[in-house]
Amino acid sequence: MTAAGRPAPVRRRVRLARGPVTIGEAAASVEPRLASAEPYRPDTIADGGTAFGLTVRAASVRGLWKRYTGGPRQDDICLRLHADSGTLIAAVADGVSGAPRSDLGAALAVRYATAAVARFLDRGPGSIDWAAVFEQAAWALVEEHRRASGDGDAGVEEASRLMATTLLVATVSGSDVEVAAVGDSPAFVLAGKEYDALVGEPQRVDGFIGGGVDALPRSAGSVSVARGSLEGGAVLLLCTDGLAMPLAGGTGEVGRTLARELARPPDVVDFARLLDFSRSTYDDDRSLVAVWGSGRP
Amino acid sequence: MKINLPSSLRAGASTGAGTPDPAEPPTTPLVEPVVPPPVAAPAATGAGLWSVEPEVSAGAGGPTTAVVGQVLPMYFVGDESHSMAGDPISAVNQGLIDLRDEVAKHPLIGKKVRFGIITFAETAQTRLELSELSEDLVLPTLSPRGRGTSYASALEALRQTIPADVALLKSGGYQVHRPSVFFLSDGLPTEKAEKWQARLAELKDPSFRERPNILAFGVGEADPEVIGQLASSPRYGFMMASGASTAGAIAEFAASMLNSMVASAERLDRGDHTIEFEKPEGFVQLDAPLV
After folding, report:
1. CATH topology for A44-292?
2. CA-nearest residue of chain A to B176?
3. C-alpha triplet A80, A278, B23: angle, nearest 5°
């Protein structure tokens, strides 16, 4: 009994739930090695909040393989607000693993692309020139390569070998969504349990996975643009193939789990933890930006 | 885990009785198995970091198309003809053991790669069905046999085996990457050129959906031109440098096959590479014309 005569509260130990969320057969457990990339590339980044009536969650997690080898996360994400137009700008990039500085390529691409979109929005509604946005992001990679290599004449091919990355950019204003992509990082509108792919359908050749991927800066000209709507509580998902592969169109366990957990926005850190699920044979970097419209339940 | 192969392809032994065959159609109705409605749980706030709800579909009963993982099938096709006797065949056997042991030590590769062994002399034999490379995997011991060196039989075996293996993996819920073949020979085919070339053309035919990437390696008395024709791309043909020892070259080949497995497994998620491979030490890359 306390001095006030009330029963003492039951003391509960605060315990942290350990380990990843497992979906299906768990992947091997690996003690991550710190990546030594320059500039600093944290293993996991998580962000989120509300703006213009939208709710956003964003995370990028290093894949198990790179945790095992100590390689840097080659995915990246970026969020940006454009106040005058009430627009959320989001970008996701997946550095091509064969390119040694694709981590830097991805980091630059998302930042330059979202800045380029904001500059177009400054000019007024409906004025985004997506080809120019991707051209500017691609050019940032070439410029960085010239700076780092000291070769002022280096071109797109050299920068592609070093920093190739996919790029997916979206604008969300009210319930209106516009997405543009180079490469296989897909965007979906998730309504209930249904995943409706807007861009970035996975490549299939003869029924096999894989078969080449378009990437910046080389493929800056092949931009796919699509529009969608967040009416009726739908969620916009922008991701990299590290998630898209196990998601496999959304019909399996991963799709059901995400649909259930994203019915409402999770807390920011929980969102990152969900994205970092353990599933055997899927060990690539994963990134996901989720946007709930103002009409969400 | 060994994948279940049709009984006609099985060497014998384990039937896997008691474990559900992933290839079998589910007996339960294919209604959406997850029951909890998505909005049923607002009360769960504050109930701990993660509550694990039993998912009704766990295990069997899910839709047959549900994806469970991704795999890269790889085949070693090795010459078991008499000219391989002695150090060369010993080098092959040791290389395979090292390959298995190294893969088994790695926490992530084993699940992503399936490895099969086909050998040939005057006939072809499947010596290892497509399997996971774990430390307890029993490898066959290759030894010289029969007369003759029939490339045709080896190529025909691949033409039969690969589609069956791929179909089985897919029916088990795997996303499958294009298979790769590592073909090693120390001599010339002892059959008519038209015979093996016809089989090769079938295997490489663009209308054959499961056509593999073929990396071809010639050691000993192998003919660079023949090896070059086998490769599915000019950069996939390799010939032992003149003056090198056959057994030494085979050891380098095996090490490169392991490296290729590691690099390919790493980049599996990334669609930009079908197979990763670097020239083994002591080999020259053939700039072979495509057949």
Report:
1. Phosphatase 2c; domain 1 (3.60.40)
2. A208
3. 120
| pTM to 2 decimal places | 0.85
ipTM: 0.87
- How far apart are the CA of A26 and the nearest CA of chain B, in angstroms? 11
CA distance B215 to chain A (A): 18
B211 CB neighbours in chain A (<8 A) are: 206
CA distance B200 to B228: 12
Are the Cβ atoms of B34 and A256 closer than 8 angstroms?
yes
Would you give per-residue pLDDT tens digits along chain B (291 residues)? 434 433 333 333 333 333 334 443 333 333 333 333 333 333 333 334 444 554 544 334 344 468 999 999 999 999 999 999 999 999 999 999 999 999 999 999 999 999 999 999 999 999 999 999 999 999 999 999 988 999 999 999 999 999 999 999 999 999 999 999 999 999 999 999 999 999 999 999 999 999 999 999 999 999 999 999 999 988 899 999 988 899 999 999 999 999 999 988 887 755 444 577 888 888 998 874 444
DSSP type of residue B82: G
Q: What is the DSSP string of B209-256?
A: TTPPEEEEEE-TT--HHHHHHHSSSGGGEEEEPTT--HHHHHHHHHHH
DSSP A278: B
Q: Which domains does chain B have, with CATH numbers?
A: 70-286 (3.40.50.410)
Tell me if A209 and B70 make a contact (CB, 8 A cut-off): yes
Q: Best mutation site among A209, A247, A261, A268 for testing chain B: the one with the most B CBs within 10 Å?
A: A209
Closest to A30 (Cβ–Cβ): which among B70, B107, B111? B107
The reply to whether residue B175 touches residue A253, judged by beta carbons under 8 angstroms, is no
Contact call for A209 and B177, based on CB within 8 A: yes
- In this structure, what is the dihedral angle of CA atoms B103, B105, B110, B112, given to the nearest 10 degrees? -90
